[in-house]
Amino acid sequence: MGGRAVIRLSLAIAALATALPLTLPAQAQVIIAHRGASGDRPEHTLAAYELAIEQGADYIEPDLVPTKDGVLVARHENEISGTTDVADHPEFADRKTTKTIDGVEVTGWFTEDFTLAELKTLRAKERVPDIRPGNAEYDGQFEIPTLVEIIALAKAKAKETGRLVGLYPEIKHGSYFDALGFKTVDSLLTALKAAGYTREDPVYIQSFEPTALVQVKFRGPAMGADYRRIQLVAADGGPADRPDVTYAQFIAPEGLELVSSYADGIGVQATLLVNANGSPTDLAANAKAVGLDVHAWTARAENAFLPVPLRVGEDPTADGNFAMLWALLRRAGADAIFTDNVAEAVAARTALQN
C-alpha cells in the first residue's frame, strides 16, 4: 500500500473515531479470505488463495461442491456458468439443464454432472467483470481447484513462510447433495484428517444448513476428525434443510442457545451486527453470552458492495470507505471478518491497532 493510501486510511479511521466515537475491543479481528483474494483474482482459484496468503490472510475459504465422481472442488455454487468458460465448450453443450436447488429453479451446468477430469478442462473466469474488470484480465488462466490441491497449497505456503494459514471450508447445499447420494461431510472430514489437521489446528467448517454441522459434530469424532463448526446466518430467509425455521429464529436468544449445542460460532451477514446508523446491534453480545464466536460476512472494498454512507464518489467499481466498515464491524463485536480484499483488511486492522 502506497503512502497516500496509508494516509487516507489513517484519516478515515480518525474521522470514524471522532464521529462515533469508538470503543474498540482489544482483540483484532481474524481475517478470512473470502473465496481467496477474490477482489484481486477470480474467486476460488489457486491463484486467489495463494495471493490471499501472501497478503496476510489468517484463513482461506473454499466453498465445496462434489464432482460426478465424488471429488470436492471449490466453487461458490454447483452451477458453474458464471465462474467458468463451460458455455464455450461445445462438447458439453448437452450437459446444460435445469434443476431445483434448495427450492430455486436454476438453469446451467452443474459440477455433479462432470467428472473431475472433465472439469479440469474448463478455466475460471471473473464472476462480476463489470465491477472487477481487472480480475477479468485473468479469465481463462486458472483451473478449478480440488480441496486436496488447496490443502497442499496451504501446507506449502506454511513451509515457505513459517506462518500457518487456516482453512475455513463451507459445505454447500448439503441436503441437496445428501439426497443425491453424495457424502460431502464425510469426504471433507476424510480429506482434513488425511492432511493431518486436528481440533487444535486452525480449521472451521461452516454451513447455512444445521444438518451438515450436526453431522460434522457427531461423525467427526468417530472418524478422528473433530473440527470447529460455524452456523451461517443471513439477514433474510432460512436454511434449505429446515424450511420451518427462519434465520431470525436462529439469532433470537433461545435460538443462539440451541446453536451453541452443535456449533462453536455464528457467521452472520454484516447488517445483523451493525445498525443503519452505524451503532452495534446486541447480536454479538448475546451470542458471546452463550459461548459462540461471532464472524461477519462480507467486507468488500468497492462502492457497489458498500452501504451508501460508506461509498466514495459515484463509480461503483471504485473503492469506498472500507476502513470504516472494518472498524464498525470490529466495534460491533466481530471476532473475525470475511473479506474479498485481504490487503485492505490487513491495513485497516493495523491502523486500528496503532
Order of strands, widest sheet: 7-2-1-13-12-11-10-9
Structural class: alpha/beta
Q: Which CATH top level class fits?
A: Alpha Beta
Which spans have pLDDT < 50 for at least 5 consecutive residues? 1-19
What do we call the CATH homologous superfamily?
A: Phosphatidylinositol (PI) phosphodiesterase
Number of helical regions: 13
If you consult CATH, what is the topology? TIM Barrel
Cα shape: globular
Beta-strand content: 15-25%
Average of per-residue pLDDT values = 93
Identify the CATH architecture.
Alpha-Beta Barrel
What distance lies between the first and last C-alpha atoms, to the nearest angstrom?
Answer: 16 Å
Proportion of residues in helical segments: 25-40%
Q: Could you give a short account of the major beta sheet?
A: 8 strands, parallel
Counted up, domains total: 1
Q: What order do the helices and strands follow? A: HEHEEEEEHHHEEHHEHEHHEHEHEH
Q: What is the number of beta strands?
A: 13
The gyration radius over C-alpha positions equals 20 Å
Describe this structure in words.
- This is glycerophosphodiester phosphodiesterase.
- Residues 1-28 form the signal peptide.
- It comes from Alteriqipengyuania halimionae.
- This protein has one domain: Alpha-Beta Barrel (TIM Barrel).
- It is an alpha/beta fold and 354 residues long.
- Residues 1-19 have low confidence and may be disordered.
- Helix 1 crosses helix 13, helix 2 runs parallel beside helix 5 and helix 7 (184-194) crosses helix 8.
- The protein is globular and about 55 Å long.
- The longest helix has 17 residues, at 3-19.
- The protein has helices at 3-19, 46-55, 116-119, 133-136, 147-161, 174-179, 184-194, 210-223, 247-250, 253-259, 283-289, 322-331, 342-353, and strands at residues 30-34, 59-61, 63-66, 72-74, 97-101, 104-108, 166-167, 170-171, 204-207, 228-233, 265-269, 293-299, 336-339.
- It is built from 13 helices and 13 strands.
